[in-house]
């Protein structure tokens, strides 16, 4: 009888547990949300403010559960050939609308000739949204978010740059830890999810930041290798 589980088996177990626990939590939450909606319709307008807060907090908790699930499952995702610039283009209107509401601007510099990459479309969308939202949350009005693709000999780099306050050196090492956050309403799961997404893609994610000047997250996607490893 083997008492020790290997890394993959252990991950599988944690993933299964996470899936069933989150399922059990999500169900009662959905019921609570449904009844809240009904109560809201029958309640005096003076209570509207409270209902809004309760609903928002419920949705926030749901978001945390979803992020946690993706993190804990570390599942094997389906990789397909995509052009990175096409995924970024799909997200640009979303990011632009968000920035617009905050009085910020966006610049996107795509390389449409970059080779195809092996990606999970849904995960890379999530990664770009997480980095984009973090950048916008860090900047004040008049801030500028830049997304830029750079072709390298061995892959494609994506630079997500903001003109925010930057990240203190002491915090830099902790950014990618699950639940590390400096925001009152943050989950601290965004960057740890980005890191696990890039690990699954065989890529990298790094940060360069200068206090007072801004921050750049650099994401590296390796080219599809033709070489077959023995
Ligand atoms: P959350 O956004 O919920 O706080 P994240 O994992 O996305 O969690 O980010 C963790 C922390 O990293 C943030 O709370 C913030 O302190 C820091 N951070 C992330 N992106 C930036 C950025 N672009 N500029 C400054 N700080 C950042
Ligand atoms: Mg975040």
TrEMBL record:
Residue span(s) of domain Histidine kinase: 20-225
Protein name per its UniProtKB record: histidine kinase
Organism classification: Bacteria, Bacillati, Bacillota, Bacilli, Bacillales
